[in-house]
């Protein structure tokens, strides 16, 4: 396997659409449109989420203008929906407003944890798939639920690393590996990442992409963190493709034992 | 008649179209979608669709999020 450039040789494919970047960004939390645009540009992302909300006549500038200037494809989400009915309506409004049938499906259980409600999530996913949507569900790090979502017809599964905005990273890497091993659709690590090493770990575990917002938008320097995430995703992907060494309990010398010139029998130490 | 637009009550004359309701809350021509009583009204139907007494109209657009 020859891999020299992740963006050129190894695209992310979701529902038949190809992306050079495996970093999907969110736009929430940025202090200004200018900072957001700088961060999105630095991230190299080609797919970025927005939320649907009541129009605000006093709003200055639109996130859609930023994405348009940057040439980034928009991925509407259903953030803030607590029931399948709310999420389905929000997805339909997004399709109407933005002209895309892609949706990041979020159906949360409560405001305290923002964890997905699996029952409502499956119900909403079924309805949206039946209606022709390309559904990318934000889900718990539950291999069984991820499998169900794939069987329903979701175009990807997006397990959380930890609660949205927590920056706690990947709390159950074993489950993420289990999801990756059994998935026939892209696995996108969505939520909870705090810094670049978290994104690299997600890719090393075999995820096909990561989706993050807060880790960048609320960093002290969003553009710098966005660049760090871009490199981390690429590094993690390359490490996954390269095939890491197995973990060992004890040392394995990387220098030869033969021909050591000190010691009477030629063997004293190696490093 | 009394219509709720984005959660706020409004007094509107009979025969007010969805297009007129949208124009009253936003100048944006693109990136906007409308639901009346939780049913999407497609853009092509805004001019031909009138709102009725006690209708709930939601006019949404994309904002930073996710």
UniProtKB/TrEMBL annotation, chain B:
This is Sulfur carrier protein. Signal peptide: none annotated. PANTHER family: SULFUR CARRIER PROTEIN THIS. Gene3D superfamilies: 3.10.20.30. CDD domains: Ubl_ThiS. It comes from the Bacteria. It comes from Thermomonospora umbrina.
């Amino acid at each position: 396997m020859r891999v020299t450039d992740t963006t050129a040789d190894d695209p992310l494919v979701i529902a038949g659409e190809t992306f050079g970047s495996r970093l999907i960004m969110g736009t929430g939390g940025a202090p200004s449109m200018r900072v957001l645009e700088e961060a999105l540009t630095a991230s190299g992302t080609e797919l970025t989420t927005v939320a649907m909300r009541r129009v605000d006549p006093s709003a200055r500038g639109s996130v859609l203008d930023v994405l348009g200037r940057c040439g980034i494809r928009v991925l509407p989400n259903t953030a803030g929906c607590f029931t399948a009915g709310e999420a389905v309506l929000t997805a339909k409004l997004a399709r109407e407003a933005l002209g895309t049938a892609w949706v990041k499906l979020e159906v949360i259980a409560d405001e305290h944890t923002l964890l997905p409600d699996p029952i409502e999530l499956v119900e909403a996913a079924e309805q949206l798939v039946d209606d022709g949507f390309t559904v990318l569900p934000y889900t718990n790090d539950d291999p069984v639920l991820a499998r169900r979502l794939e069987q329903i017809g979701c175009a990807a599964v997006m397990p959380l690393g930890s609660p949205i905005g927590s920056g706690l990273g990947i709390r159950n890497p074993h489950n993420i590996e289990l999801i990756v091993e059994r998935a026939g659709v892209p696995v996108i690590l969505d939520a909870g990442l705090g810094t670049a090493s978290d994104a690299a770990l997600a890719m090393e575990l075999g995820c096909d992409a990561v989706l993050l917002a807060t880790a960048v938008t609320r960093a002290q320097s969003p553009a710098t963190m966005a660049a760090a995430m871009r490199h981390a995703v690429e590094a993690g992907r390359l490490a996954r493709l390269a095939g890491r060494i197995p973990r060992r309990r004890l040392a394995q010398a990387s220098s030869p034992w033969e021909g050591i010139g000190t010691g009477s029998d030629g063997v004293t130490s190696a490093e | 008649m009394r219509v709720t637009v984005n959660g706020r009550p409004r007094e509107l004359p009979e025969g007010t179209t969805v297009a007129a309701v949208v124009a009253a809350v936003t100048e944006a021509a693109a990136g906007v979608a409308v639901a009346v009583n939780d049913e999407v009204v497609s853009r092509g139907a805004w001019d031909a669709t009138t709102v009725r007494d006690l209708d709930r109209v939601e006019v949404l657009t994309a904002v930073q999020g996710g």
